[in-house]
Structure prediction request, 446 residues.
Amino acid sequence: MSEPTDWKQKYRDSLLEMEAEEKRWRQVEQLLRRLIGRLCAAGLGVDSRLDEELTALAAANRRNAEAAELERLAASLTIAVVAVDGVAPAARTATLKSARQDATRAAIQSLFERLRPGAPSVAAIQSLLSELAIAKSDAAVAAVVERAADMVHERGELLVRERLRAAALLSEVTERLEEVAGYLTESNSASRSRFDDTQSLNDTVMLHVRELTDEICEATELSVLQTAVTARLESVAQQVSDFRVREQTRLVEYNGRADHMRARIADLERETQELHSKLDIEKHVARIDPLTGIANRKSFEERFEMELARRAQNGASLAMLLWDIDSFKGINDRYGHRAGDRVLQSVAACFTAALRPADFVARIGGEEFAVLLTGLTLAEAVMAANQVRTAVEGLRFHFRGTPVRVTVSCGITELHPGDASEQAFDRADGALYSAKNAGKNLCVAA
Prediction:
């Protein structure tokens, strides 16, 4: 019974993970709603004709209005914005508006980077990023934010449905386990009944033997003795016959229950295997960055803690590399996010190809990567990092016929005895900052 119990605990853990994921997406949804509120606040005062629309949209957003109402208010705001845009604004107003839109785009792009790992569709995120890049008005930006909010809401609803399905599966497994427990209880009861019946038969036979012995001692005539022996033997034979009938009935019932339980156990094993495979796939996907196909930040943090514990036990060398793609924002701004995604994918593939199979590579944020090198000293890690840096520099990117130069900078640190993850990250991050300040396309150790 230990294995089904372990599965039960695993599905409880899976439910807890989905609840945490649902909570995270709800938090992202609230962040989007706060962003809408701040956009509305930022737009107030630009034109009196917009103030009424912005106030209504902000009020609906504060009370967590449904998507349909927000969409209607956004459409009304769009009409007002178009009317205002028809009047040529003053130069200072245009400059402030452009700066505000740039800041808004940067904030929304940062939000999309957080959405991407768990988004139901990377293509949908890419489409929104493309729309954001060409958005020229507050209304267009607001429309992108509105669609992003809808996406977050849909993701939250999906997580709720997945959690309910997992709860239903857990309930079904529990019922199956209870059925197995009931079968074992019935089997134990049947065994006890058989033992009691056998004991009763034995007692009855022994009683007849003793009584027959007494009758033999008291008998004075052969005919009387013969009659007594015959009667006792017939009684014993009847007792044995009744016992065999009961035993046969118990055997039939037991075989029926056993056949039924074997079939149920086979079903349970098959379903458990299917659930096991599905759970393994879901756990694997949850730890993989969907854009680059390498490990994500969560997976890296788990591996980092494991390597720290291993180093504490055996004292093996462990180095960490923090990477950042140089001028990545400029690539996105000039060539678009599709080109930026291609760069991320190619750099990740280059890291994996240039390092050893035992080395661990992860994307931990936008254009940031982290690598764990086991068994290498700091000097050896610097040599490996420079080989990777040179390999990335040698990549050839072309976007619409235009060559795109891509380089990376790296901060390197070796783990010391007693190091905590935060200390190692701080050292590597400081080294990476130094590499950036020194001109980029460099590897610096700390």
Summary: The chain has twelve helices and seven strands. Residues 105 and 390 are 33 Å apart (CA to CA). The first strand starts at residue 318 and ends at 325. The chain has a mean pLDDT of 78.
